Give the backbone structure.
Amino acid sequence: MIFEHEIPAGSRLYFGESAREKRHVERVASELLEKNGFEEIVTPLFSYHQHLSIRDTKELVRLADPQNRELTLRADSTIDVVRLVTKRLGRSTKQTKWFYIQPVYRYPTREINQIGAEWLGGDLADVLEVTMELFEALGVEPVLQISNIQIPVLISFEFGVPLEWFASMQLEKLLNTEHAWLGELARVQHVEQLETVMDKVPEVLRPELAKMKELMNACRCGQCVLAPLYYAKMRYYDGLFFQCFKHNTPLASGGHFINDDISAAGFALYTDALIEARMEGKGQ
């Protein structure tokens, strides 16, 4: 029996203070992003191309169009934004900086509200700077985690370590390989530790680790850690990426990617987690 007051698990309801917080967060974000030269875009709820974004396609909520071709609810905004700007808007705009405020949906009934931005041709350090500026404007101080997807990819390709071990964070298997340096790399969190390990890891990994160090030195986050072996779930990241946390709750993620030969960098803030972090800070 379904009661009249029930809503599906994973869906969202805002009222009173939470509704005010949602409106405030979105207003502050839109004003700051516009100040930084971003224009707003709202992408369709339905898409034919979400499988290009989501590594685990079982998370897609599937439907059919009038010709019975498969489509899905929007599960990620990044690739849709880039595809629509470059393929559909085409020559009608020269704008390269776009932001969106909209939910995405994951199977079976997860609704995830996001504030995101994509910068075509942009540098990840600049995108991270805007992300940190947003957190500062919203009065939330996160822990920033910097990773590089090329490191687990190279380790898998060069040394035969299954990529699935990184994707599912099977640290016990990574620590028990014949490569002693892999265990040391798994424990790296700070620049000083990275510098100590740098001479012990294979030469093929050193340029990618140096990129992580460079990005960390460029950012102005008070709390920053490195996670060299972390493997992102998003299909499109091709190098450096980051996540922001508060008490182990993800607040944002972003990274560099290439789609149809277009280099870009972007991020997404998780609105609901931000609201909870702000309300918790107010003692509510």
In short: The radius of gyration is 20 Å. The mean pLDDT is 91. The CA atoms of residues 123 and 265 lie 6 Å apart.
